[in-house]
Design brief:
β1 and β2 form a beta hairpin. The protein is elongated. The protein has a domain of 30 residues. The chain has 2 helices and 2 strands, in the order ααββ. The N and C termini lie far apart (54 Å). With 47 residues, it is of the alpha+beta class. Strands 1-2 form a two-stranded antiparallel sheet.
Length: 47
């Protein structure tokens, strides 16, 4: 059992996001607005 858990993978797969995912996150962050009022924060998403 110890041998099974002690093996290390030599090659790690490099995970890269798709262009659509990056565009979605950027567009979401552009539309997100945080308004601070006294001791409360309001998050507004402008579509």
């Amino acid at each position: 059992m110890a041998k099974l858990y002690s093996k290390r993978t030599l090659a790690t797969t490099k995970m890269l996001p798709k262009r659509e995912t990056i565009n979605f996150i950027l567009n979401f962050s552009k539309a997100l607005k945080v308004v601070k009022a006294s001791n409360m924060n309001f998050e507004i998403i402008a579509n």
